[in-house]
Protein backbone atom coordinates (compact mmCIF):
# COMPACT_ATOMS: atom_id res chain seq x y z
CA UNK A 1 0.00 0.00 0.00
CA UNK A 2 1.40 3.41 -0.95
CA UNK A 3 0.06 6.91 -0.34
CA UNK A 4 1.21 9.85 -2.42
CA UNK A 5 1.28 13.22 -0.67
CA UNK A 6 3.08 16.44 -1.37
CA UNK A 7 2.49 19.74 0.35
CA UNK A 8 2.92 21.49 -2.98
CA UNK A 9 2.94 20.37 -6.62
CA UNK A 10 6.27 19.16 -7.98
CA UNK A 11 8.52 21.92 -9.28
CA UNK A 12 7.90 20.87 -12.88
CA UNK A 13 4.18 21.63 -12.49
CA UNK A 14 4.80 25.16 -11.26
CA UNK A 15 8.26 26.47 -12.10
CA UNK A 16 8.16 25.58 -15.77
CA UNK A 17 4.56 26.44 -16.47
CA UNK A 18 2.64 29.41 -17.64
CA UNK A 19 -1.16 29.34 -17.55
CA UNK A 20 -3.02 28.39 -20.67
CA UNK A 21 -5.99 30.24 -22.15
CA UNK A 22 -8.26 31.51 -19.35
CA UNK A 23 -6.40 29.20 -16.95
CA UNK A 24 -8.29 26.17 -18.20
CA UNK A 25 -11.77 24.92 -17.35
CA UNK A 26 -13.57 24.14 -14.08
CA UNK A 27 -16.65 22.11 -13.22
CA UNK A 28 -18.26 21.40 -9.82
CA UNK A 29 -20.82 18.62 -9.39
CA UNK A 30 -22.33 16.39 -6.70
CA UNK A 31 -20.64 13.09 -5.83
CA UNK A 32 -22.95 10.89 -7.90
CA UNK A 33 -21.72 7.85 -9.89
CA UNK A 34 -23.01 9.23 -13.20
CA UNK A 35 -20.57 12.12 -12.92
CA UNK A 36 -17.49 9.90 -13.34
CA UNK A 37 -18.59 9.18 -16.92
CA UNK A 38 -19.82 12.71 -17.55
CA UNK A 39 -16.55 14.21 -16.30
CA UNK A 40 -14.57 12.10 -18.76
CA UNK A 41 -16.85 13.17 -21.63
CA UNK A 42 -16.51 16.81 -20.47
CA UNK A 43 -12.69 16.62 -20.47
CA UNK A 44 -12.58 14.77 -23.79
CA UNK A 45 -14.68 17.48 -25.47
CA UNK A 46 -12.49 20.25 -24.09
CA UNK A 47 -9.27 18.47 -25.11
CA UNK A 48 -10.58 17.82 -28.62
CA UNK A 49 -11.26 21.54 -29.02
CA UNK A 50 -7.97 22.69 -27.44
CA UNK A 51 -5.53 20.07 -28.75
CA UNK A 52 -6.67 18.71 -32.10
CA UNK A 53 -4.46 15.88 -33.30
CA UNK A 54 -3.32 14.86 -29.82
CA UNK A 55 -6.09 12.33 -29.16
CA UNK A 56 -3.71 9.40 -28.76
CA UNK A 57 -1.53 11.26 -26.24
CA UNK A 58 -4.62 12.52 -24.39
CA UNK A 59 -6.13 9.03 -24.01
CA UNK A 60 -4.02 8.27 -20.93
CA UNK A 61 -5.12 11.56 -19.38
CA UNK A 62 -8.78 10.65 -19.91
CA UNK A 63 -8.30 7.27 -18.22
CA UNK A 64 -6.36 8.78 -15.30
CA UNK A 65 -8.92 11.60 -14.92
CA UNK A 66 -11.80 9.11 -14.93
CA UNK A 67 -10.05 7.05 -12.24
CA UNK A 68 -9.55 10.07 -9.96
CA UNK A 69 -13.14 11.25 -10.38
CA UNK A 70 -14.40 7.72 -9.70
CA UNK A 71 -12.28 7.59 -6.52
CA UNK A 72 -13.73 10.91 -5.37
CA UNK A 73 -17.28 9.76 -6.08
CA UNK A 74 -16.82 6.39 -4.32
CA UNK A 75 -14.47 7.29 -1.46
CA UNK A 76 -14.57 11.08 -1.14
CA UNK A 77 -17.23 13.57 -0.20
CA UNK A 78 -18.99 16.04 -2.47
CA UNK A 79 -19.20 18.36 -4.04
CA UNK A 80 -16.38 17.50 -6.43
CA UNK A 81 -14.55 20.14 -8.45
CA UNK A 82 -12.49 19.23 -11.50
CA UNK A 83 -10.01 21.52 -13.22
CA UNK A 84 -7.96 21.07 -16.39
CA UNK A 85 -5.48 23.41 -17.99
CA UNK A 86 -2.80 23.29 -20.61
CA UNK A 87 0.74 23.89 -19.39
CA UNK A 88 3.21 25.73 -21.57
CA UNK A 89 6.93 26.06 -20.95
CA UNK A 90 7.80 29.76 -20.46
CA UNK A 91 10.89 29.52 -22.64
CA UNK A 92 8.86 28.19 -25.56
CA UNK A 93 6.27 30.94 -25.12
CA UNK A 94 8.94 33.64 -25.13
CA UNK A 95 10.51 32.30 -28.31
CA UNK A 96 7.28 31.46 -30.10
CA UNK A 97 4.02 32.78 -28.61
CA UNK A 98 1.99 30.45 -30.86
CA UNK A 99 3.62 27.31 -29.49
CA UNK A 100 1.54 24.26 -28.62
CA UNK A 101 1.10 23.12 -25.02
CA UNK A 102 3.59 20.62 -23.69
CA UNK A 103 1.53 19.18 -20.83
CA UNK A 104 -1.96 18.80 -19.47
CA UNK A 105 -2.58 19.43 -15.77
CA UNK A 106 -5.73 17.87 -14.28
CA UNK A 107 -7.01 18.27 -10.73
CA UNK A 108 -9.85 16.59 -8.84
CA UNK A 109 -10.90 18.13 -5.52
CA UNK A 110 -13.29 16.60 -3.03
CA UNK A 111 -14.19 17.44 0.57
CA UNK A 112 -12.78 14.27 2.18
CA UNK A 113 -9.45 14.54 4.03
CA UNK A 114 -8.63 10.82 3.65
CA UNK A 115 -5.69 10.36 1.31
CA UNK A 116 -5.86 8.04 -1.68
CA UNK A 117 -3.82 4.85 -1.32
CA UNK A 118 -2.27 2.80 -4.07
CA UNK A 119 -3.02 -0.83 -3.25
CA UNK A 120 -1.50 -3.99 -4.67
CA UNK A 121 -4.27 -5.75 -6.54
CA UNK A 122 -4.20 -9.50 -6.84
CA UNK A 123 -4.70 -11.26 -10.20
CA UNK A 124 -8.35 -12.03 -9.37
CA UNK A 125 -9.08 -8.64 -7.75
CA UNK A 126 -11.60 -6.56 -9.70
CA UNK A 127 -10.80 -3.36 -7.79
CA UNK A 128 -7.81 -1.43 -6.40
CA UNK A 129 -6.09 -0.75 -9.73
CA UNK A 130 -7.13 2.89 -10.25
CA UNK A 131 -4.15 4.66 -8.72
CA UNK A 132 -1.76 2.16 -10.32
CA UNK A 133 -3.24 3.21 -13.67
CA UNK A 134 -2.85 6.89 -12.77
CA UNK A 135 0.77 6.24 -11.82
CA UNK A 136 1.47 4.38 -15.07
CA UNK A 137 -0.32 6.81 -17.40
CA UNK A 138 0.92 10.14 -16.07
CA UNK A 139 4.25 11.94 -15.92
CA UNK A 140 3.64 12.73 -12.25
CA UNK A 141 0.79 12.79 -9.75
CA UNK A 142 0.39 14.19 -6.24
CA UNK A 143 -2.08 15.03 -3.50
CA UNK A 144 -2.32 18.23 -1.46
CA UNK A 145 -4.69 19.70 1.09
CA UNK A 146 -7.48 21.72 -0.53
CA UNK A 147 -8.29 25.23 0.68
CA UNK A 148 -11.33 25.03 2.93
CA UNK A 149 -10.81 21.33 3.69
CA UNK A 150 -10.56 18.16 1.70
CA UNK A 151 -7.88 17.28 -0.81
CA UNK A 152 -6.88 17.86 -4.41
CA UNK A 153 -5.39 15.01 -6.41
CA UNK A 154 -3.52 16.24 -9.50
CA UNK A 155 -1.51 14.85 -12.38
CA UNK A 156 0.52 15.94 -15.38
CA UNK A 157 0.43 14.23 -18.77
CA UNK A 158 2.92 14.91 -21.55
CA UNK A 159 1.20 15.98 -24.76
CA UNK A 160 4.37 16.07 -26.87
CA UNK A 161 5.75 12.93 -28.43
CA UNK A 162 9.24 13.32 -27.08
Model description:
The chain has 162 residues and is α+β, with helices and mostly antiparallel strands. It is 35% helix and 24% strand. The chain contains five helices and seven strands. The strands form two sheets. It has a five-stranded antiparallel sheet with strand order 2-3-4-7-6, with helices on one face. A hairpin with a 5-residue loop joins strand 6 and strand 7. Helix 3 runs antiparallel to helix 5. The longest helix has 21 residues. The N terminus is likely disordered.
Task: Give a summary of the structure in a few sentences.
The protein is α+β, with helices and mostly antiparallel strands and 162 residues long. Helices cover 35% and strands 24% of the residues. The N and C termini lie far apart (32 Å).
Please give the alpha-carbon distance between the first and last residues.
Answer: 32 Å
Estimate the global geometry from the Cα principal axes: globular
Strand order in space, largest sheet: 2-3-4-7-6
Number of beta strands: 7
Radius of gyration: 15 Å
The computed structural class is: alpha+beta
Instruction: Indicate the proportion of strand residues.
Output: 15-25%
* Count of helical regions: 5
What integer is the average pLDDT?
Answer: 78
Helix content: 25-40%
Q: Low-confidence parts lasting 5 or more residues at pLDDT below 50? A: 1-8, 15-21
What does the largest sheet look like?
Answer: 5 strands, antiparallel
Amino acid sequence: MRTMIHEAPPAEAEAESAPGPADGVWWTFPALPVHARLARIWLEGWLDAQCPGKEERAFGALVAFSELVTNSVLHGAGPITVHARLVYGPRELQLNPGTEPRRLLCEVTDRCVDLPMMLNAGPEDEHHRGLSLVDALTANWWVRAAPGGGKTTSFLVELDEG
